[in-house]
Amino acid sequence: FIRMLYKYSLMILERILVNHHKEHAIFSYNLVTANSKYTQKYIRKYWGIKSTILYPVSEDMLSKEATKKKIILNVGRFFGLEEAAHHKRQDILVDTFIKMRGLHDKGWQLHLVGSAKDEISTQKYIIDILKKTKDYPVFVHTNYSFAEIKKLYNAASIYWHATGYGSNPRLFPEKQEHFGITTIEAMSAKAVPVVINTAGQAEIVTNGSNGYLWGTKKDLAAQTLVAIQTMDKISLSARQTSLKFSKNAFSSNLMALMETLGRE
User: Fold this and answer.
1) 20 to 30 A Cα–Cα from 173, which one of 66, 101, 163, 249?
2) Of 152, 148, 153, 173, whose CA–CA distance to 163 is shortest?
3) Which CB contacts under 8 angstroms, 24+ apart, belong to 61-66?
4) pTM of model > 0.90
């Protein structure tokens, strides 16, 4: 509680100081962009200024030879739990999947992919996951190449995301997923997203339309079972959503902003 109070106090102090000194660099910009509505809200909160949303570009991961398998995928960096400010919470996904024995019996697997540094806390976190999952169809892939990750995107039928789980977004907004590039990448490869219902993830996914949202581990399991039953329909909708964040869409949106600046 003391740590939370301390951090919240610093946030308030920063806001006061930044807004008091109008010579701060951010006030000299003609245009400030945000990568999501979630980020836009905190730009307004901390600096008291308006911003324009410019969603980031996402790589199209769909391959012509894509063959879907009974794979649930998560892509995100590995960190030690006690150190990361933006933890991907693979441990929550593992805990949920281990209990879904019905999926194991039907041949479903969970694959966790992400970069990992040679830090003691990070390696311990990975080792703990490996120990916990040694008797289950769970696979951990560290420091994969782009080609290897793309192959897994095209094999995955379901995409899981848990960043921000267990943290209060009002006190620690930085621990949430500010947008969610990996979710869009998975959707572009026609994987059905089953993602946490906070921050940027809730902007990307509309529950029951192009994917599913969850709030608790029980919800995650339940929504995953629904997603498996509706994969054929929802995967197409997920793919269509991903095109809104394509390179062409980003270029068009960026040029529109540049034209707006040119008229000022």
Assistant:
1) 249
2) 173
3) 61/150, 61/153, 61/154, 61/185, 61/186, 61/188, 61/189, 62/154, 62/188, 62/189, 62/190, 62/239, 63/150, 63/151, 63/154, 63/189, 65/154, 66/154, 66/155, 66/189, 66/190
4) no
What does the pLDDT read at residue 240?
97
pLDDT digit string, tens, across residues 9-18:
555 445 544 5
Distant-in-sequence, close-in-space partners of 123: CB < 8 Å, separation ≥ 6: 116
Largest CA distance in the chain: 63
pLDDT at 7 over 90: no
Count of positions (residues) in the chain: 264
pLDDT digits (tens, 9 = 90+) for 100-138: 999 999 999 999 999 999 989 999 999 999 999 999 999
Where helices occur in the chain by DSSP H, the ranges are: 2-20, 37-47, 90-99, 101-105, 120-132, 146-155, 181-188, 199-204, 217-229, 231-242, 247-262
Task: For residue 8, give the amino acid letter.
Answer: Y
CA distance linking residue 154 with residue 193, whole number of Å: 13
What residue type is 27 in one-letter code? F
Token reading at 225: 């079972």
Name the residue among 185, 154, 160, 139 with its Cα closest to residue 74.
Answer: 160
Tokens of 172: 């620690």
